[in-house]
Design brief:
Distance between the termini: 49 Å
Number of helices: 27
Structural class: mainly alpha
Strand order of the largest sheet: 2-1-7-3-6-5-4
Radius of gyration: 31 Å
Length: 730
């Protein structure tokens, strides 16, 4: 929170404190409190401008580089830093890159050469064969700037794309398009490619999401100006029936996006082309398997000299039978790299590979050797790391994604909603007991606090059971249209809350005339009103459920509370007051949860740790600020009829404690905190989950895409998923 944010909170507290100190009669105090609610709400809206996003200022762009120079320069720098760091972690150049080679594909999947050249009658083929270091030059020889890279699993397609992006950035002129790698697995081809590219750019690079004077965003302007070169990685990771639709969607952009690079497995691409069409004007190359000599040379030079003789039996067998199981398995860069990690970097003898009768079994042994090797002598035991990573693979399979995002883990935890409710009740009771034990030194009001804790827990359960997972958010300075949009969200939720309060207050009062029991009448009224209003912002089922559940709980809670506090809550006027107060508080809470908490995709931040820390800090700061304001407001509403001591107690119990906890219950950080505790207790994850994932990234088990992790290769994830967590090789 910045200085202006702290100042905003201080102003709120100061205004409320002034209202509490003036010497007005009770009727005047009530009028002042009600009159001040709108002003405090408006000031609360302005408070959001004080909680600002910290951002790094990029180096200045070259002078005279065009209207999009700043955005292009910042994007190029961000991508260059990202993929250089990833290349270092992958040890791509240690001691030198594996000799990835390719040739023009022989499959009937490329467009006509005169279409690729853009010149009728020029049907002669272009020789696009090359090696890893030549990828930039080869791409420059493609007249259409549309290239497809084919290769089997583990053939090195992603590394080749990374090398291409870094090479293009090194040679890029100020006005040249910026190459950006987009994992295709998250694209729904029913969405136009350009629309998806813009959304991904805005998600991953927050500077490109800010509104421009033209009413658009830099991301949209860059894509519309053909200044982004889409590098689409992993077309094969789309479901079978969607690949031909993806090709059709890419072809639809031909007149607007000049260049595009696509990677895919060979068989999957050929199937998609046969069932649909080729990628228009695109040349197609296919990666070659590593030769026996290339494999032997790489494994020899990556093994310490005193241990190279351990490879001699394997090298001899490969030379005698170049088509045997071991040479076939090691023909992909992924498997050769796994052999290096499993045997060149350890004391284990590679001759055990010769005992495997098939290529698939050799590959399975290499995959199984990987985790025990990289976790040898670390703070994490290899068997525990294997179990946790197997759990991650299972969770990703359930979510249908390759992205290991910490804020989505809560969706895979059975019974999380109950854990959310229990944690909310326990924290609420701890605050109430601490308040009475150390501040008031009295047990008065503890019983009422226990009843309110019940409602807090049930509402936390409802929030935890919602299928909507609020993405990590930080309160950010917004300008022009974005600021107005956030303000509209706030006012809409506040309006729903006030009308909910008024309607169920009036209905509760009328029902009380017939039922003569405030708890029941209030609960029935809340159930009838809150459900439909909640349905306006979510689903009808969820709205009815939360309305009915909150109504039942309120019937019990407020019925018992009413029995303890006498006539406080009874009568028509009191019911209206209680309903308005309840609705106003609910309106503020849910408007800040779902309105002003500006969702920001975690890929916008430098790494998942930053995403988590920002979400945690923003959530706690806003929850405390909101709780303090509502503590004072509710205290002022109670004080004229029941005394200032009662107002302070009830203000804390309802305004601060309950409100803050409900806000926490809807935050990504708190859901993740509860989820990781549940996962740790069940043995499916370590308690220090983020530290473990960060360590797995440094060891090469995971790779990082913005604010999410992925397994370094889908083969490792699939192996962990298939083995049931039991194939750990020692």
């Amino acid at each position: 929170m910045t200085a202006s944010g702290v100042l905003g909170v201080a102003v709120l507290v100061g205004v409320a404190g002034y209202l509490a100190s003036v010497g007005l009669e009770k009727a005047d105090k009530l009028a002042s409190v009600i009159g001040a609610l709108a002003g405090l709400a408006a000031l609360g809206v302005s408070l959001r401008g004080g909680l600002s996003r910290t951002s790094q200022v990029p180096d200045p762009p070259p002078v005279g580089a065009g209207p999009h120079a700043a955005a292009l320069h910042g994007l190029a720098l961000a991508i260059q830093r990202q993929w250089r760091a990833e290349s270092d972690l992958r040890r791509v150049s240690d001691p030198w890159p594996l000799p990835v080679r390719w040739v023009n594909t022989r499959r009937p999947v490329a467009d006509h050469w005169d279409a690729v050249r853009g010149k009728p009658g020029r049907t002669e083929a272009l020789d696009l064969a090359g090696t890893l270091e030549e990828i930039t030059e080869v791409y420059a020889r493609v007249p259409s700037k549309r290239l497809v890279l084919l290769g089997e699993s583990g053939a090195g397609k992603t590394v080749l794309l990374m090398w291409l992006v870094l090479g293009l950035l090194d040679r890029r002129a100020p006005c040249d398009p910026v190459p950006v790698i987009f994992p295709v697995s998250s694209w729904d081809p029913s969405v136009p490619l350009e629309t998806w590219l813009v959304s991904k750019l805005e998600e991953e690079y927050p500077g490109l999401a800010a509104p421009t004077p033209q009413g658009t965003t830099p991301a949209r302007e860059l894509v519309d100006a053909d200044l982004v070169l889409p590098v689409l990685d992993g077309l094969d990771e789309l479901p079978d029936g969607l690949r031909k639709d993806a090709l059709r969607g890419i072809n639809a952009t031909l007149s607007r996006l000049t260049g595009v690079v696509v990677s895919c497995r060979g068989d999957e691409y050929e199937t998609a082309v046969r069932s649909g069409d080729v990628l228009s004007r695109a040349a197609v190359v296919e990666l070659c398997p590593l030769t026996v000599a290339e494999i032997q040379e790489y494994l020899r030079v990556t093994t310490p000299p005193h241990r190279t003789e351990a490879w001699h039996p394997v090298f001899d067998a490969m030379a005698e039978d170049p088509d045997g199981p071991v040479p076939q398995a090691l023909s992909t860069p992924l498997m050769t790299w796994l052999a290096r990690v499993g045997y060149s970097d350890s004391d284990k003898g590679p001759a055990e590979l010769l005992a495997e009768p098939t290529r698939e079994q050799v590959e399975g042994r290499l995959l199984d050797r990987y985790l025990p090797t990289v976790y040898t002598g670390t703070r994490w035991r290899a068997d525990a790391a294997h179990r946790w990573l197997h759990s991650f693979a299972v969770q990703l399979d359930r979510l249908g994604t390759r992205d290991l995002a910490w804020w989505q883990l809560a969706r895979t935890v059975p019974g999380l909603r109950y854990a959310m409710g229990i944690s909310a009740v326990l924290l609420y009771l701890a605050m109430i007991l601490a308040l009475h034990a150390f501040v008031y030194r009295s047990t008065t009001g503890i019983g009422d606090g226990l009843l309110i804790a019940l409602e807090v827990g049930v509402v936390a359960v409802l929030l935890g059971s919602s299928k909507y997972t609020r993405p990590p958010a930080r309160i950010a300075i917004r300008t022009s249209d974005q600021g107005r949009d956030a303000s509209k969200k706030f006012l809409r939720w506040l309006w729903y809350g006030i009308w909910t309060g008024l309607l169920h207050g009036m209905l509760g009062a009328l029902l009380y005339l017939f039922i003569k029991d405030y708890g029941v009448s209030y609960g029935v009224a809340l159930a009838l009103v809150a459900g439909p209003l909640m349905a306006l912002e979510s689903t009808a089922t969820y709205g009815v459920r939360i309305g009915l559940m909150d109504g039942v709980v309120a019937a019990v809670v407020y019925g018992l509370v009413g029995a303890n506090v006498g006539t406080l809550w009874l009568g028509l006027a009191s019911a209206l007051t209680a309903g308005l107060l309840h609705g106003f508080v609910a309106g503020i809470v849910f408007s800040l949860i779902f309105g002003l908490g500006v969702p920001e995709d975690p890929a916008t931040s430098r790494d998942p740790h930053t995403v988590l820390s920002v979400d945690r800090g923003s959530t706690i700061a806003l929850a405390v600020a909101l709780g303090l304001v509502l503590w004072i407001l509710i205290g002022l509403a109670f004080a004229p009829q029941n005394g200032w001591a009662s107002g302070v107690v009830w203000g804390f119990q309802i305004g601060f404690s309950a409100t803050a906890l409900l806000f926490l219950s809807a935050s990504s950080w708190w859901r993740f905190t509860v989820a990781r505790v549940v996962l740790a207790l069940s043995g499916r994850a370590p308690l220090r989950l983020m530290a473990f994932m960060d360590d797995a990234h440094r060891r090469g088990v995971l790779r990082q895409f913005g604010g999410v992790y992925q397994f370094r290769h889908s083969r490792l994830q699939d192996r962990l998923l298939a083995d049931g967590g039991s194939s750990l090789v020692r």
